[in-house]
Write a structure and sequence with these properties.
Layout lengths: L9 H14 L3 E2 L8 E2 L1 H22 L3 E4 L4 E3 L1 H5 L2 H4 L6 E4 L4 H13 L8 E7 L5 H6 L10 E9 L12 E11 L1 H21 L4 E5 L6 H13 L3 E9 L2 E12 L1 H6 L10 E8 H12 L8 H6 L5
Parallel strand pairs: 3-7
Antiparallel strand pairs: 1-2, 4-6, 5-6, 7-8, 8-12, 9-10, 10-11, 11-12
Helix pairs in contact: 2-10
């Protein structure tokens, strides 16, 4: 296990982990410290984790599993429809582009030539960066009758604007989500099933985990009340592990949405009632980095059982 410093010295711990990840080419640094690439070793572990999740889902739920993939960009209107603008404006990202004519282009070139800031000359395109892998699913199913026997398996690139040099907090990251739409009982059962599955999977990979109540980072004074309500209703649970000594870090989460997305997207059950939804999300980048922190940077030295589970045994 990498020596990440004593408990309480969080700054030293994440800097030590980051330096080791870069030195061993797990992370490939770029201009933005919060947007590193993944090297070949990290990718091999990532692929192993992804395959393990897919295999487990199919062994447990069989033909119910419906894999889907959506782009990392969607309509900016979705940020309104999901209430993301009201709840998490500090995390949202929209896409701008140059939309002017020849006159505006001359202004752009002149500004660029002087070395001044050219970005104010770009304007919104009506597109946004996807903050959660499951959000496009609800738009695809909009104003329709949902099939509660489906278990949607979604893999997606997500964006949340919380830049940090801490390797456990990327601006862009990958999620694997399992979503169920149905009655309240079906949605809550789904969340509980996947919390148990996640605990078992992580422990099989040698990670010590705990499951704790949590809340999303709602913005503003009203967000304090929303966060308190979320904890009171036990709507969100996180699977956490100590990547840094004494500091739990979420590597997965189970969320019950009630009828929030059902209401916003007109999702109905066969009896005409509004669909409830729940999802479990695996933080893929956080998971593989937690494995590196736990077992070291060379997967050939990891416990044999872990190598077998991830298809790394040679």
């Amino acid at each position: 296990m990498a020596d990440l410093g004593e408990s309480g010295d969080l700054d030293t711990a994440w800097r030590t982990l980051r330096a080791g990840l870069i030195e061993n080419r797990w992370l490939l640094t770029s201009r933005s410290t919060a947007l590193p690439g993944l090297g070949s070793t990290a990718l091999a572990v990532y692929d192993g984790v992804a395959a393990l999740l897919s295999r487990t889902a199919r062994e447990t739920f069989g033909p119910e599993v419906t894999p889907l993939r959506f782009p990392p960009v969607f309509s900016a209107h979705m940020l309104e429809q999901t209430d993301y603008v009201a709840s998490f404006p500090q995390l949202a990202g929209t896409i701008n582009s140059f939309r002017g004519g020849q006159g505006e282009y001359r202004d752009l070139i002149a500004t660029y030539g002087r070395g001044d800031d050219w970005q104010p000359l770009f304007s919104p395109t009506g597109l946004a960066l996807t903050p959660a892998a499951c959000h496009p699913l609800y738009a695809w199913l909009e104003d329709g009758e949902v099939d509660h026997t489906r278990l949607y398996e979604l893999t997606g690139d997500c964006f949340r604007h919380e830049p940090s040099e801490d390797p456990m907090r990327f601006v862009a990251f990958r999620m694997r989500e399992y979503v169920r739409l149905g009655t309240a009982e079906q949605a809550m059962t789904h969340r509980e099933q996947w919390l148990a599955i996640a605990r078992s999977l992580y422990e099989t990979l040698g990670l010590e985990v705990d499951i704790v109540p949590a809340n999303d980072p709602f913005f503003g004074r009203g967000g304090i009340l929303l966060a308190a309500n979320q904890r009171r209703d036990e709507a969100k649970w996180e699977v956490v592990t100590e990547v840094y000594p004494g500091t739990p870090c979420a590597i997965g989460s189970g969320n019950y949405h009630d009828t929030h997305f059902g209401d916003e997207f007109g999702l109905r059950l066969p009896d005409g009632s509004t669909a409830h939804s729940a999802c479990f999300g695996f933080g893929m980048d956080r998971t593989i980095l937690a494995l590196a922190a736990r077992h070291g940077f060379d997967p050939t030295t990891w416990p044999g059982a872990v190598q077998v589970e991830l298809g790394l045994a040679g």
